[in-house]
Amino acid sequence: MRLRVVTTAAILLCLVRVASAHRLDEYLQATILSVDKDHVQASMRMIPGVAVASAVIASIDSNGDGLLSPAEQRAYAERVLGDLSLTVDGKRVQPKLVSVDFPQVELMREGLGEIHIEFTADLPHGGPDRKFILENHHQRQNAAYLVNCLVPRDPDIRIVGQTRNERQSFYQLDYVQAGGPSQSRLSQWWTNVRESMSALGFASIFRLGMRHIAEGTDHLLFLLVLLLPAPLIVSGSRWAGFSGARSSVLRILSIVTAFTIGHSITLAFAAFGIVRVPSRPIEVLIAVSILVSAIHALRPIFPGKEAGIAAFFGLIHGLAFAATLGELGLGRWERVAGILAFNLGIETMQMVVVAVTMPSLILISRTRAYIILRTGGALFAGFASVGWIVERLTGVHGSVDVVVGAVAHHAAWIAGALFLISLGCRRLCNIFERKTRARSASSDRAATSAFDHSRAVAQIE
To answer: Comparing C-alpha atoms, which of 145, 196, 190, 198 is closest to residue 167?
Structure first.
C-alpha cells in the first residue's frame, strides 16, 4: 500500500511541479493505471501549456461562447477516449468514461489548469500471463505523455514488466494473475516469490543491499573493529601474539557468519511486522555495539566469544536493515523476494570487505606493528561511537558522519595501503628474524669455540 501511495505521489508531484511553472508548448497527458482481475481503472490528468491552451479550449468550446458546459466537457472526454487504443492479450477493449472534471478557463490559458478524466475498461478472461497495451494518440503533434501503473491491490496479481516507447505514447504492461485452483500451495508460493522478484527487480534490491552496507559506515565499523583482535591469542588480560593462520581465518569466518545469522533473523521478523522497534533506540544500540567492540579490541572483555557477540549485536543491526527495506512499502510476497535479494546484497558486500581486509590482518598480526593498527583502529571506532551515541540521543547532528564518511570515501586506498604496509612489515620481520637467528648462531658458535679452547688448555695442563 505504501508503494502504491509513493507511486501516486511521485506522479502527482511531477504534475504539480510542471503545472506551477506555467507550461509553455506541451500538452501534458499523464495516465495512472490500476489493474484488477476483471477490469482496469485509469486516471488521466491533462495540462495544456500556454502556447497550446487556446487551441485546446477552442476544440472543447464547440459553440464558441467562452464557457465549457458539462455537455462540452463530456463530449471532449469521449473524444479523448476515442483517441486511446486499449488491448488485452491482443484483444481490443473499450474504455468507459466514469467522470470528468475541468478547471476554470482562465487557469487553462495560463498553463495551470488540469483536466481530470477517469475511465475504466472491462477485461476478458485469460490465462495467468497477461499483456495490457495502451496507446494514446490524442493531440500527438504537441503532446507529452506519461504512463505508470500502481501496485495491484489484489495479492494474486503481480506486475512483471513495463515497456514504453520514447514518448510514452505506447505503454505495455505485463502481469501475472496467479492463484488458480489447480496450483498446489507450495507451487503457488514459489510462483508468487518468483514473480515478485521479477516485478521488483531482484538485481535492484540486491544492489540496494550492497549499497546499504557500503554506505552504512556504522555497520561496517562494528564488523571491522570486531575482527581486529580475531588473529590474536589472549594472555592474562591482554592480547598477545599471533594465533596462527588457520585459527585466524576460522575465527574471522565464524564472526562474519554469526553476524549474518543474527541480522538475517531480525531482518525477516521486522520486515514481516513480527517485531517493531522505534528507529532511534536501534541507532543508539548500533553505536553502543561499536563502542563495545572497540573496548574489546583494546582489552579482551569477551575472549573467545566474539562470534556470540557478533550474533547478538547482529540482531540489532538487522532491525536497522529492515527499516531500509520497509521504506520500499512491499507487499507480502514482495517482502519474501525483497528479503532474499536485500540479504544477499548485504552478505556479498560483507564478504568483499572481509576478503579485502583479512589478508592484511593476518599478515600484519604476525608483527609487532599490529599493536599500532589495532589500537589506532579501536580508538577511532571508540571516539566515533561515542559521538554517534551523543548525536542519536540528543538528535543534534555533529561532525562524526562527516569524518567517518571522509575516511570511508578513501576506503579502497586505505585497504591497498594497509596491504602494502602488511607486506612491508612482514618482510622486515623476516629480515629481523633472520638476523636474530644469525646472531644467535654466531653467539652459539663463539661460545662453543671458547668452551673447546678451554678444554684444550685444560688437557695441556
So the answer is: 145
Coil, helix or strand for 382? helix
Tell me which DSSP letter residue 244 carries.
-
Residue 183 lies in a domain: no
Residue pair 60/68 in contact (Cβ under 8 Å)? The answer is yes
Cell 470528468 belongs to residue: 100
- Cβ atoms of 143 and 84 within 8 Å: the answer is no
Q: Establish if 191 belongs to a structural domain.
A: no
Q: How close are the terminal C-alpha atoms of the chain, in Å?
A: 107
Please list the helix, strand and coil fractions of the chain in percent, rounded to the nearest 5, in that order. Answer: 60, 20, 25
Give the integer Cα–Cα distance in Å for 153 and 123: 16
- Give the 3-state DSSP-derived string for 391-447, with helices as H, strands as E and coil as C: HHHHCCCCCHHHHHHHHHHCHHHHHHHHHHHHHHHHHHHHHHHHHHHHHHHHHHHHH
CA distance 439 to 452: 20
CB neighbours of residue 42 within 10 Å: 22
Residues 342-373 as b/e (b if ≥16 CB within 10 A, e otherwise) read bbebbbebbeebbeebbebbbbbbbbebbeeb
Q: Clarify whether residues 265 and 401 are in a common domain.
A: yes
Which residue range forms the structural domain that includes residue 33? 2-177
Query: Same domain for 163 and 26?
Result: yes
Q: How far is CA 107 from CA 30, 102, 160, 204, 321, in A?
A: 18, 10, 39, 41, 47
**Alpha-carbon span 331 to 272, nearest angstrom:** 9
Contact 226, 255 (CB under 8 A): yes
Residue 256 lies in a domain: yes
Task: Give the tens place of pLDDT for each residue, 55-76.
Answer: 888 888 888 888 888 888 999 9
Assess contact for 338 and 325: CB atoms under 8 A.
yes
Distance CA 226, CA 257 (A): 13
Q: How far apart are CA 417 and CA 207, in angstroms?
A: 27
| Euclidean distance between CA atoms 138 and 167, whole angstroms | 13
Residue type, 438: A
168-223 confidence digits (pLDDT tens): 899 999 998 875 444 444 445 445 545 544 444 567 778 777 877 777 788 888 88
Nearest to 405 by CA among 216, 262, 261, 202: 216
